[in-house]
Specification:
2 copies of one chain form a homodimer. The first copy, chain A, is of the alpha+beta class. A 7-stranded mixed beta sheet of chain A has the order 11-12-10-9-15-16-17, sandwiched between helices. In chain A, a hairpin with a 3-residue loop joins strand 9 and strand 10. In chain A, helix 14 packs across helix 15. Strand 14 of chain A pairs antiparallel with strand 15 of chain B, so a sheet runs across the interface.
Chain lengths: 553, 553
């Protein structure tokens, strides 16, 4: 068994990445990426050229299969591992990315009769055109006092499965009627690998409103009579598949696609952010993992169920079987810094960075790192793409105060970084206020490479930061679940201990800086509540005025 | 008399500009600029190399004389006018720019005994190192209920004469003791031209706390025993010289410097902003002139005395003899736009502007002009260099709210322009709230060339804008006072009618846009009061924290 390996595949927004990992120690032996040929379908439907409405985002499931056919063999080849040494395979996926299929799993969009209908395609997580449906679900759930609503911080998102299903029903009833199943891309890929239709506990819990069961038929009927049977007819099946459980065995067809041995273990699917936790050895209570990229996902497990204000969701076994898995998030983090560099940094900084052969983020970060806390005289609110946790309000917007004629780009850059760190601190305080202690902070995602950003987070949160020691944490996490499904480890804790990778205490808080940040955070918190909780409704008003103004197309 | 001309000289911060103007119709026949060789002395004293403390700003009076010797003859030569046709000369000057002299007008800094002492030099208007003295003057005046305090919006500035004189006394008593006179640069130049020491009503009123008399000896003694005799010993003399009055006749020495006929009329001095009013034909009640450049000065005359909250000052005959002259201002306007272009506009805009051969301001303004009101979804507070009127608080700072990942540079640029227009509207409303009607708006200064900015001001204020039709309004205004002093016109009203230049109704408000701006202004006003009147003290706190943080030099 010393040579035993597993394959993890991370299905992202634009590509799939396969990694071959040694079971014994988590060594990442080879990997390959395959870009989705159709990428994100946002402007027009390729089959017809039909223009898609605003806020739509579709995918083509054929692209997912191509990852199995291309990336997996390429990763195995790159690893030098003999295919027969691979004992299991697992995936993670974006969520919620649900799709309509026939009873045998055939995507509706693959049928000639439906390929010209946008609603027949998978709706990618960032398809935001079901906002009206989400609003009605939320209003009705609040009216009826549905017990599950509090598990989602009081509000479900337009990105989620039920809102998207209701949109299909209302906008293209023929597709709704024709679909036998409405299934997450995550579970659909596992179906293609194993021949078994499963629903994994993570996606169903966080994106499918599964809390000891789905929403009732009475609730669905109150939304729309025709929606009453949605769960019974198109969702429900065997019990949810626990993370790390065996969904089935690799089929002959999937073995042919991947070049892997028929019959090896296929694990239940998982969500990309959540699967990263064990890869960073985050499997215990009191440990929070932040996956910091364009946005930040905060994940942590706990022994107890609590209602954390503004969390995205709490799910039984949602991250680690046997524990309550909590998710919270910040809608804008790295993308705010990217927006700033693209739109608000003058030529002199671009030139100076180019001269030194570094990127503008690195250049500004180095200048910002030289400053004392508060020296720039700024405080910002990091709501440039709204606020997920703890306010759950996507109409909010960014603010900066303290601008002077002496304010430079590195000042604003640092203030924006600090604002996102204050946002994380707000989330941590919400957890602790609800009785869920956050003892340790782990970080994964692209931003771990920026030491200035990491140091600000350590100082603002007064916690040492432990950084994941893998550049493909999601795929590694998936591979670890494959190892558990294959029986190589008894549970994910054991797999994490052997295969997970973390560097501890990479950035530790400085007491003086932390004290100085306490003062700035007090200002942030006051602005946060004033503009976020109704003290001044200007952000909503500006969004309304901006929407009303005729926009030139 | 058809050929009769006058010379006006505008003494700015870095140079003096002389203009030769025909008395009959105000035609500007020739001009010349002379840069001050010493410019602004901010870092070290040229005589010794001594490093000056922060916030100091001195000048060398020899530079002023050079303007008389160089710019005036050059302007006359450029005009083609025979020197003997020049019948009068007048100047305007920055203020408050006071200097210590001997009884005969010799600047102390021109004496070998004092040339190595910083306090012997003129303190330029932007010398801000007397803030401590100003604070004590304000506190004491408030304590004692000094009647003049309300005439200055409740607060005098560190830029003004008394604060600077007290700084001399406290920091270099030897200079204080040696100076026989403490006199504004404006009046000192007139002294050099005419041989007569005068104090003009404008500078004395706005910058010298002259309100039916100077502050009392008892008040001065309460500040510092040694200061009790300041007015009697070093300021007071004959009654203040009304604007447009004849200070004296051109001396033989000054005739030799300037090449003008000895004995022609020399008018009383004036302040640069105020002297521009008659050049734009602004001499009547209900007419407000805005001089819009790096900052904006708002000037208007009225029949009645009122206490306008947050005004800079109200002075009897301060702009036009016989009327109460009001001044208000915004500390940052064009310099906010310049800061933005220098610090927050990305390379693509600079490149696009360069490709079209236009400057970045023009480029952004053209893009911004295409937007509907409110389309950008932003509101800003224009306090990047504090707020002069109506809050009189230089520790305030800039704010912007409504930022999104879709926000572009032209959006922020327009929001900043609008913020300054909202600032002007706030000032207009303060005047009207105090019973001083603002019926008409006139504009001078560099920003009149930007049609986008002008249109925003017309829409936000709901008033047509009348633009001065001269590029050297201050010097033209000075020349008009010379014509009055020479007896060519009975008063400044008559001179303005004949020699002033204005284009009326160049930008007129649009009713729909004005209504849309009313909604945005309501948000501005609420933010203005929240951050400016104590609802949230974050701006002061950030300034304190920023000051406390060790700054690397």
């Amino acid at each position: 068994m010393a040579a035993a390996c597993v394959v993890g595949i991370d299905f992202g927004t634009l590509s799939g990445r396969a990694v071959v990992v040694r079971v014994e120690d988590g060594a990442e032996l080879g990997s390959a990426v395959h870009e989705f040929p159709h990428a994100v379908i946002e402007r027009e439907l390729p089959a017809t050229g039909e223009r898609l409405p605003r806020d739509w985002a579709l995918q083509d499931p054929e692209d997912y299969v191509e990852v199995l056919r291309e990336a997996v063999p390429a990763a195995v080849a790159a690893s030098g591992v003999a295919p027969e040494d691979v004992v299991g395979i697992a995936i993670d996926f974006t969520a919620s990315t649900p799709m309509p299929t026939l009873a045998d799993g055939t995507p509706l969009c693959a049928l000639d009769a439906f390929r010209d209908r946008p609603h027949a395609y998978p709706k990618l997580w960032k398809h935001h055109a079901a906002q009206g449906q989400a609003d009605r679900i939320n209003a009705l759930a609040a009216d009826r006092g549905e017990p599950w609503l509090a598990r989602y911080g009081g509000r479900i998102s337009s990105e989620w499965q039920f809102a998207k299903a209701l949109q299909v029903l209302e906008e293209d009833p023929a597709v709704y009627d024709a679909m036998d199943r409405f299934i997450e891309g995550a579970d659909w890929v596992v179906w293609q690998l194993s021949g078994e239709e499963t629903r994994n506990a993570c996606t169903a819990g966080y994106k499918g409103i599964f809390q000891d069961g789905y929403p009732s038929a009475a609730f669905l009927a109150a939304l729309d009579e025709r929606f009453a049977g949605f769960v019974a007819d198109k969702l429900a099946g065997p019990p949810l598949a626990a993370l790390g459980s065996r969904a089935g065995a690799l089929t002959a067809r999937a073995a042919a696609w991947t070049g892997l041995p028929e019959g090896i273990a296929v694990a239940a699917a998982n969500v990309d952010a959540h699967v990263t936790a064990p890869a960073a050895q985050v499997t215990g209570p009191g440990q929070m993992l932040m996956v910091m990229g364009t946005s930040t996902c905060h994940m942590m497990s706990a022994d107890t169920l609590a209602e954390v204000p503004g969390m995205c969701g709490v799910v039984d076994g949602g991250i680690v079987p046997g524990l309550w898995g909590y998710e919270a998030g910040q809608s804008g983090v790295g993308d705010i810094f990217a927006w700033f560099v693209d739109n608000a940094v003058p030529p002199r900084c671009h030139d100076a960075a180019a001269e030194r052969g570094i990127d503008v983020h690195t250049y500004l970060s180095e200048l910002a790192a030289e400053q004392e806390v508060g020296e720039h005289g700024l405080v910002a609110l990091d709501w440039h793409s709204g606020n997920r946790s703890v306010l759950v309000d996507h109409t909010l917007s960014g603010l900066i105060v303290g601008l002077r004629l002496s304010t430079g780009p590195e000042d604003v850059y640092r203030a924006l970084v600090e604002a996102t760190a204050f946002g994380t601190r707000t989330i941590i305080e919400a957890f602790e206020g609800a009785g869920i202690a956050v003892d340790e902070l782990f970080v994964a995602g692209g931003l771990i490479k920026n030491p200035m950003i990491m140091q600000v987070y350590a100082d603002v949160t007064r916690r040492p930061l432990h950084l994941i020691d893998s550049e493909q944490g999601a795929a590694l996490g998936a591979a670890m679940h494959a190892a558990v499904a294959a029986g190589a480890y008894g549970d994910i804790h054991a797999a994490a201990g052997a295969m997970g990778k973390v560097r501890r205490d990479v950035h530790v808080p400085d007491a003086d800086r932390a004290a100085a940040y306490d003062r700035l955070f007090a200002h942030y918190a006051r602005l946060h509540d004033h503009f976020g909780r109704g003290g001044d409704d200007v952000m909503h008003a500006l969004a309304r005025i901006g929407t009303e103004a005729p926009v030139l197309d």
